[in-house]
Design a protein that fits this description.
By secondary structure, this protein is of the alpha+beta class. It contains 3 helices and 8 strands, in the order βββααβββββα. β1 and β2 form a beta hairpin.
Length: 133
């Protein structure tokens, strides 16, 4: 996190990025984790998983994960993994690896800060520990 500015102990500006670490290690993510990641980026990956053959898999391999929020004036400008911009305006949050390969794409580039906090609270309130290795 960089450039954190607070007013009355509430964030008013920052640039935060969460990403997978470089290096060689097992990278697996559960369907539940994919659902939670999708909820943060506004993607609809879970509907595709639940409808299709991907629903038979409990976990998926991934090459990289990344999510970025640049907050200013109560709005987060969202982005994903470095170099993950798409021609359709979306951004890659999770780049799949192996078989089956599953990419999580976000499309909501501008998210109200309070909406993002609500999404995070819903993920936490589910009280289910997603598997992310």
């Amino acid at each position: 996190m960089r450039g954190l500015e607070l007013t009355h102990w509430r964030p008013t500006a920052f640039d935060a990025r969460i990403a997978s670490s470089p290096g060689r290690y097992p990278r697996r993510v559960s369907q539940r984790a994919v659902q939670n990641i999708s909820a943060l980026g506004g993607g609809g990956a879970m509907a595709a998983i639940q409808r299709g053959a991907l629903g038979f898999f409990d976990t998926f391999r991934y090459r990289e994960l990344g999510l970025r929020c640049r907050m200013l004036s109560d709005v987060c400008s969202m982005d994903g993994v470095e170099g993950g911009g798409r021609a359709d305006g979306g951004f890659v949050i999770m780049r799949g690896g192996g078989i089956p390969a599953l990419n999580v794409i976000g499309y909501n580039r501008r998210v109200d800060w309070s909406e993002l906090v609500d999404r995070l609270q819903r993920v936490v309130a589910d009280n289910v520990t997603p598997e992310l290795r």
